[in-house]
Design goal:
The chain is an alpha+beta fold and about 100 residues long. It is built from 2 helices and 5 strands. The chain has helices spanning about 5-15, 25-35; strands spanning about 20, 40, 45-50, 60-70, 80-90. The longest helix has 10 residues, at about 5-15. The two termini are about 25 Å apart.
């Protein structure tokens, strides 16, 4: 899913990652393969956030889904993989 700017900011506050700019060439390539998503890069590779099931009284959360892994230690090449739902969740919007 595409995240709003505030949700991207909240995600970056919770993960050691950086958001891939929407105009970056890799964003277009992965959009063609996986659909419209906000992409994040970290030491493990490339990930997206998918909505997580939530109770009515809880804040919206997302689950980190890994789409590609680094092929080398210099983090210059990614290898696409089957989507891997991780055990990492983020709060998308904080309560006021």
């Amino acid at each position: 899913m595409k995240l709003a700017k505030t949700d991207i900011h909240e995600t970056l506050n919770q993960l050691n990652a950086r958001a891939v700019p929407e105009n970056h060439p890799v964003a277009t390539q992965f959009s063609d393969t996986f659909g419209e998503h906000t992409l994040f890069l970290d030491t493990e590779g490339l990930s997206i956030i998918e909505p997580a099931q939530e109770a009515e009284d809880e804040r919206p959360t997302g689950q980190v889904v890994k789409l590609a892994s680094w092929l080398d230690n210099t983090h210059t090449q990614l290898m696409v993989q089957e989507p891997e739902y991780t055990d990492t969740f983020v709060v998308l919007r904080r309560a006021a």
